[in-house]
Structure formats: structure tokens, C-alpha cells
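Q: Could you fold this chain for me?
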Amino acid sequence: MMDHIEDETQFITPPNMLKQKMGSGGIPEEVLKRSQEFIDNNNIDYEPYAQDYLEAIDGILQLTKKTRSPDSRVEYVEEISKNIMQLKSSGSMFGYSSITQIADTVLNFLEVNEHINADLYKIIEAHNAAVLVIINNKLRGAERKEIGSITKELYDAISRYNKKYNSQE
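A: Sure. Below is the predicted structure, expressed as C-alpha cells.
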């Protein structure tokens, strides 16, 4: 029979190597302030960067239209999504929050869509056309009448697509 066994269990907390390397404090307030000032006052011309993403999307879209391989189509749409994600993440930083909004709308659509077809290509083309209109007319911000119209048309196209292809399942 066991009378009384002493518990000699010892808990050892291993050192947090990542914390030791990176530190445990937050980002200094001055660094945050300077970063925000840069974002607010940068004079980088965003249009050429956005144009590059649009050209990449269009080039991949042309390849997608030509392929007969379903696997290749999926890979191409994923590559298109990566470029749209770049537009989404950089638009607001350069004063084009409407590009971020439009890219986000199409990106969300592509993430949940399971049908790759000619109508999906048209929505991607509409995305590119919308971004191009914004860039060419330097429509900064998101509260402009033109941007509301563009966004509404894109939402409507996605709604029609979803009604046609995704409500039948």
C-alpha cells in the first residue's frame, strides 16, 4: 500500500526565443506617427503600380480563357486573386480607397466562387475597367458619386452571377 507519495513534479517554462530576438514591447509611438505621416503625405505616383497589376491580371486572364485544363484555370484564377489582393492592400495607402473597396468586393467573390466560366471572366474584366476609370480620372477617396455608381454596377453583376450559378446548388 502507498501511504503518501510526495508530488515532485516540476513545471519548466522554456525560454521564448522569438521574444528574446524581437523584444516584448510594442511599436514606439514616434515610429507609428512617422509611418502615418508618410502614408498621409507621400507623393509616390501610384498609377503605374496599379497599371502593372491590371496588366498582369489581364495577361493571366487571357491565358485562363485559352486553357482547357480545369486545374490550370483554378491556378490562373488564384494568380489573378493575388494581383487583385495587391490592389486591395495598396489602394488606400495611396489615397485610392475606392480601389481597395472594389478589389475587396471582387476578391471576396473569387474566394467563394466555384465556377470558372466566361461570366466570371467578365466580372474580372469589369473590375479592371473600374480600377482603370478610377486611376485615369484620379478619383481619390471613396465618397464620390462616380465611385458609388461603379461599385453598384460591380455588385449588381456579382449578384446576377451568383443568382445564375450559385443558387442552383
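A (continued): The CA atoms of residues 29 and 35 lie 10 Å apart.
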